[in-house]
Amino acid sequence: MKFNIFILFVFNLIFCFSQKISKNDILSDLSFFNEAIKNGHPINFLQKGKINIDALLLKISEGDNDSITFVDYRFILGEALQSIACIHTHVNKNPRIEKISKKLFIPLRIIILNEKIYIKTISDSLNKYDENKSLVGKEILEINKVPSKQLVSTFLNYSASDGGGKVFALEHVNFIMAKILALFFSFPEKYEVKTKDKTLILNATQLFVEDTVFVPKYPVILKNNDNIFQIKDSISILKLNSFSKSDIAFF
Fold first, then answer.
1. Per-residue H/E/C for the chain
2. pLDDT of 210 higher than 60
3. Residue 218: is its pLDDT beyond 80?
4. CA distance 87 to 99
5. pTM as predicted
6. CB 44 within 8 Å of CB 38
7. In the chain, how long is the greatest CA-to-CA distance?
8. Residue 120 and residue 136: Cα distance in Å, rounded?
9. CA-to-CA distance for 135 and 199, rounded, in angstroms?
10. How far apart are CA 94 and CA 75, in angstroms?
11. For residue 33, what are the CA distances in angstroms to 29, 81, 133, 189, 248?
C-alpha cells in the first residue's frame, strides 16, 4: 500500500548549501511527520502509534547542535524513514537539488561493498591514460578528507527497507552513488580521492550514463520471462517487471 504525506519540509526554505536549519524548525517539521505516522500510516493499523520516530526526536532535542545544513537534514529524514521501515514511505523530491543548475559529479563509478568503498569503473576521460586503468577495484580510503567509513555510515541512512535493515538502502545508494556524493559535498568542482597507493585530484564532470546503473550479479534461483527470484547473502530478492497468466506457475 502506498502512503503519501504532503508536508512542506524545510528544504523549500533553504536557499544555499551553507545555510543552516535551526533545531526548532527540525523538531517542528519532524514532530508533524511523527504525528502523521502515528495516526495515519497503515503500518500502525494493529496498534496506533506503535511505530514512530520518538527516539530520533529525543536524540535531536538532546543534541549539541543548534542548527544543521539541509544536506545533513536529508540524512536525518532517511534515519526517520528507517525507523518506520516502510519502503513506500520516502522522500520523493528534494526541491533544493532540482534548482541547482550546475551539477557536476565524480568521474568514477564507485560502490559500497562489505562496508567499504571501491572503484568499479572510471570515466572515458580517465581511462585513456594507462596509469589510471589500475584504479579499477581499488579501495577508497577517503574522499575530500572524509573517511570512507564515515561516508558509508552516513549514506546508509538515505533510504529505508521494508521490515527494517539497510539492504534496500545499500542497493539504492550504490545505484545513485555519484549523485549522493555530489549532494553530500555540495557539488564540488574537484574531488580528492585517497587510496592505499595514491591520492588523486579529479575534476568533476557530467554524469557518464553507462555507469549510472548498478546491476548486481546474484544467483538466479527461478526465472520466468523478465521476473526473477534471487538469493543474496541468505536474503530473498523477488524482482517483478511484468505479470501475466503465464506467471501463475512462477508463484
1. CCCCCCCCCHHHHCCCCCCEEEHHHHHHHHHHHHHHHHHHCHHHCCCCCCCCCHHHHHHHHHCCCCEEEHHHHHHHHHHHHHHHCCCCCCCCCCHHHHCCCCCCECCEEEEEECCEEEEEEECHHHHCCHHHHCCCCCEEEEECCEEHHHHHHHHCCCCCCCCCCCHHHHHHHHHCHHHHHHHHCCCCCEEEEEECCCEEEEECECCCHHHCCCCCCCCEEEEECCEEEEEECCEEEEECCCCCHHHCCCC
2. no
3. no
4. 26
5. 0.68
6. yes
7. 61
8. 6
9. 11
10. 12
11. 6, 10, 47, 35, 40
Identify which of 81, 94, 72 has the alpha carbon closest to the alpha carbon of residue 33. Answer: 81
38 in Cβ contact with 64 (< 8 Å) = no
Q: Which amino acid is at 51?
A: I
Average of per-residue pLDDT across 101-112: 83
Pairing of strands 139-143, 146-147: antiparallel
Contact 80, 33 (CB under 8 A): yes
Burial label for 160, CB within 10 Å (0-12, 13-18, 19+), is buried
For residue 37, is pLDDT > 60?
yes
Residue reference for cell 585513456? 128
Of 77, 126, 108, the C-alpha closest to 182 is: 108
Report the candidate in 174, 175, 184, 178 with the shortest Cα–Cα distance to residue 150: 184
Assigned C-alpha cell, 148 = 570512507
Nearest one of 179, 139, 144 to 158, comparing CA atoms: 179
